[in-house]
Each structure stands twice: as C-alpha cells, then as structure tokens.
Amino acid sequence: MDKKLTLSLKADVIEAAKRYARSNEVSLSKLIESYLSSLTKKEAGKTEITPLVRSLSGVISIENDFDEKEEYSQYLIEKYK
C-alpha cells in the first residue's frame, strides 16, 4: 500500500531531481523510493555482483605484494615526463 510523504527540500534540489527523473523516464516518487530502499536494505554491506563482473572475476592474477598506489604513481610519472 502506497502512502504519502511530505518532504521539505531546497527548491534547486527539487528542480535538479525533477530534471534527472525526467531524463531517466522515471517519476520523482519512484526515484526517491528507490534511493531510500537502497539505503535501508537489510543486507547492508552485501553488494550485488553483476553477471559481467562475475565473468571477469579471476581474469587477472596479481601478486600478493602488489602495491597499486606505487604502480599508479610510476604510471603518472612516466605519462607526464
């Protein structure tokens, strides 16, 4: 059963949300309902893995001592020489 809810929001936030909803062909009510639903899911912390991501899992093997920050730093140094 649907219920009504009154919210007080800044006018610019409302207008931006309406534009977003319109561009995604969804009602503002449905947009807010989906957002609140995603925030309050019982399985917080469990992220659904899409089939595409699942199919890519294990494609790359990385050494245990791999330092991604160091590698990225080296990449940027080389890129901007």
Overall description:
This protein has 81 residues and is mainly alpha-helical. It has a domain of 41 residues: Met repressor-like (Arc Repressor Mutant). The longest helix is centred in the first third of the chain and has 13 residues.
Radius of gyration: 21 Å
Structural class of the secondary structure composition?
A: mainly alpha
Q: What helical percentage do the residues reach? A: 40-55%
Number of helices: 4
CATH architecture of the domain at 1-41: Orthogonal Bundle
Oligomer: single chain
| Annotation, overall tally of beta strands | 0
For the record, what CATH class of the domain at 1-41 applies?
Mainly Alpha
Instruction: Please give the largest β-sheet.
Output: none
Name of the CATH superfamily of the domain at 1-41: Met repressor-like
Strand content: under 5%
Provide a brief overview of the structure.
With 81 residues, the protein is mainly alpha-helical.
Task: Detail the topology: elements first, then pairings.
Elements: H1 11-23, H2 28-39, H3 51-56, H4 68-79
What are the main properties of this structure?
mainly alpha; 81 residues; Arc Repressor Mutant; 53% helix
